[in-house]
Amino acid sequence: MASSLIVHKRIKTTVAKAKALRMYVEPLINRSKEDTTHSRRVVFSYLQNKDAVSELFREVAQKVATRPGGYTRILKLGNRLGDAAEMCYIELVDYNENMLAASGEAATGEKKKTTRRSRRGGKKTAEETVAAAETAKPAAAKAEPKEEDQAPEAEKTEE
């Protein structure tokens, strides 16, 4: 299942198998970030599939190079009709274009910048933000004149 996930980027399975597969595959993907002979041999000892290993080290490792973890995503689908087993898709995170487009990463090629909020800062009201903007405007207007304005005066003094 691990080599199928790496080659196909998304497989449909039960939730229990997907959770077990996640624990098996994520360390292998993490190992693929460092492309050495030793790490290739270690990954091959787990996967036993040359195509999956080469795919992992060539394409998958480049896409997840900046990601610190969480390389797989489980999307639950509901219960199977025959035995009512919970079904899901398990996929590699950086290969689902629909999810990337929704978050804005696919169009720009960059990840959104996330910020952490603290409780100390408090929120400003609309009046406070307007007042802060008005106090900033007169300071900009009082700035020294530009060089273009000073240049004609310098020419007058020379004549």
From TrEMBL:
Give the matching Pfam families.
Ribosomal_L17
User: Tell me, what is an example of a GO biological process annotation in this record?
Assistant: translation
**Which portions of the chain have biased composition (kind: Basic residues)?**
113-123
Task: Please give an example of a GO cellular component term from this record.
Answer: cytosolic large ribosomal subunit
| Entries under Gene3D superfamilies matching the protein | Ribosomal protein L17
Q: Where is the composition biased (Basic and acidic residues)?
A: 143-159
Q: Which UniProt keywords are present, listed alphabetically? A: Ribonucleoprotein, Ribosomal protein
Which spans does this entry mark as compositional bias, Low complexity?
Answer: 128-142
Task: Give the residue ranges for region: Disordered.
Answer: 102-159
Record's keyword annotation contains Ribonucleoprotein: yes
Q: Where are the transmembrane segments?
A: none
InterPro entries under this entry? Ribosomal_bL17, Ribosomal_bL17_sf
GO molecular function (one): structural constituent of ribosome
Could you confirm whether the keyword Transferase appears in this record? no
NCBIfam families attached to this UniProt entry: L17
The family classification in the record reads:
Belongs to the bacterial ribosomal protein bL17 family.
Alphabetized PANTHER family for the sequence: LARGE RIBOSOMAL SUBUNIT PROTEIN BL17M, RIBOSOMAL PROTEIN L17
From the Swiss-Prot or TrEMBL record, give the protein name: 50S ribosomal protein L17
Lineage of the source organism? Bacteria, Pseudomonadati, Bacteroidota, Bacteroidia, Marinilabiliales
